[in-house]
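TICKET: design request
STATUS: open
ATTACHED STRUCTURE:
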């Protein structure tokens, strides 16, 4: 079983690169929940890629099931940054309430200028600075929404790809079984004698 050559497409690698790119920016923003989700996603993508190369349909099915979970997670991220259903992009939900970090894009987006002003006039905050970000060409929440939308698109294509690969593997197994590849060796063999020979034995 060598698998189907037509299934060795570059799509799984593209999906993995997209997940790695998002993981880097989530690490820079200390977004712990997305970091964990991205890590699991990378593992499942590797598993699906291994299943495609090594002819393991079960691994590909696991990847297909995970794509549904991944789509759901990214829909939640979109709702989080668009503040749908009572969610707030300023909450500490994505950092597990252990830090007040926000998305890396909130201070490093396209056109953003970061300014720090010392807070020396307030008691107890002499060593702190007030950070303001101005001039952003695109608000960071929309960048995060575009990231999640792109991940959803890749996941949907990945689901179709996984279904295609599994169907091809199944067809190959069925065709191999049809030509007798899995048929057991006959347990017995019947030697039929010619009718005229049987007639001679009966006459004698």
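STATUS: resolved
RESOLUTION: sequence designed for all positions
ATTACHED SEQUENCE:
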């Amino acid at each position: 079983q060598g698998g189907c050559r037509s299934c060795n497409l570059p799509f799984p690698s593209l999906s993995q690169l997209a997940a790695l790119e998002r993981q880097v920016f989530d690490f820079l923003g200390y977004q712990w929940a997305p970091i964990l989700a991205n890590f699991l996603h990378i593992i499942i993508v590797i598993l699906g890629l291994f299943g495609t190369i090594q002819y393991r349909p079960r691994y590909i099915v696991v990847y297909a099931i995970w794509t549904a979970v991944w789509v759901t997670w990214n829909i939640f991220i979109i709702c989080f940054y668009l503040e749908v259903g009572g969610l707030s992009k300023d909450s500490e939900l994505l950092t597990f309430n252990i830090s007040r970090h926000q998305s890396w894009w909130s201070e490093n987006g396209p056109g953003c200028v970061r300014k720090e002003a010392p807070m020396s006039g307030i008691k107890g905050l002499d060593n702190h600075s007030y950070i303001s970000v101005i001039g952003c060409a695109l608000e960071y929440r929309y960048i995060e929404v575009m990231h999640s939308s792109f991940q959803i698109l890749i996941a949907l294509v990945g689901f179709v790809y996984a279904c295609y690969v599994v169907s091809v593997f199944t067809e190959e197994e069925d065709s191999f079984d049809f030509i007798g590849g899995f048929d057991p060796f006959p347990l017995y063999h019947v030697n039929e004698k010619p009718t005229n020979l049987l007639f001679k034995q009966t006459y004698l």
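CLOSING REMARK: Residues 140-178 form the longest helix (39 residues). The longest strand covers residues 113-118.
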